[in-house]
Amino acid sequence: MSNSVILVGGNLVSDTDFRKKLAGRDAGVELQMVVEDLLSSWDPESSPANDNESLLVEKADIITTSQPQPERYLPRDQLKITLKIFLHDCDVAALFAAVKAALSKLATNRVDMLFVATPIEAIPHIGIGSGAVGPEQAEAKEQLLKLWKGVEQLIQEGKVGGAGLCDLHPPVFIQIYEESTIKPISIQVNLKSCCVVPEELSSFAKDNKVTLLTHSDPGELLPGDCLRNMLYPKLSREAGHYSADWVARYQVHLKDRGVLLQKRYLTQLIK
């Protein structure tokens, strides 16, 4: 049984039947349905050719005359690719692995915009509604700054055009911004968690030309108990040994027209 599995969902834009099932669902339920859909294709006894690699479980895209996948033949400069990474903790290696997997599936060498969600373990200490102070916040802030240095490296390598952060306690975002070499150009805020954008954050964003966006992603896309329940019918007691190391979601738009061509989830499960 593989210690690492990467689940690659299908294109939710071209899979019309599956998309109908997702209507009105939030991102958490959306991802859970994508994972459940992939589990039938996962043979737990399979192993990757190389022990250091992850087993790849992938859903084939549906290609029809009504969904000809224009992104396959359009010039790259006519496409806008946005990638959002959800991490369990501030692990730079996991960030790099998620970006690498997304770029490989996209068959491109760069994304235009990268958003990094506040890692699950850091949310209680530096999340937008935390208001925490003390050594735990300082440690979480330091770890996030190290993670941002990884983002800066991706930008310097040309793999990412620009990048932003999500749902941070305003003083934390401001400090990350001020201490970073390459500045975040955007901040996403989930209005469900804070109801209204804090004035401190909106003023700072306006003064520094940081794009302020809202989103509806839950803090944890794939909770451990939910994953265990999905895996149990296939893996029995082994189900509790797996956890989601990272989740990547990308969207490909036709630039200047706003037409969504691709939307896909990738998830790495580790044991």
Write a structural description.
The chain has a nine-stranded mixed beta sheet, sandwiched between helices. Helix 2 runs parallel beside helix 9. The protein is 35% helix and 24% strand. It is globular, with a radius of gyration of 19 Å. It is an alpha/beta fold and 271 residues long. The protein contains nine helices and nine strands. The mean pLDDT is 90. The protein starts with a strand and ends with a strand.
Quick take:
The protein has 271 residues and is α/β, with parallel strands linked by helices.
Which helices and strands, and how do they pair?
Layout: E1 4-8, H1 16-22, H2 27-39, E2 55-58, E3 79-87, H3 92-106, E4 111-116, H4 123-126, H5 135-156, E5 160-166, H6 170-179, E6 186-190, H7 191-194, H8 199-207, E7 211-215, H9 224-235, E8 243-254, E9 259-270
Parallel strand pairs: 1-2, 3-4, 4-5, 5-6, 6-7
Antiparallel strand pairs: 1-9, 3-8, 8-9
Helix pairs in contact: 2-9
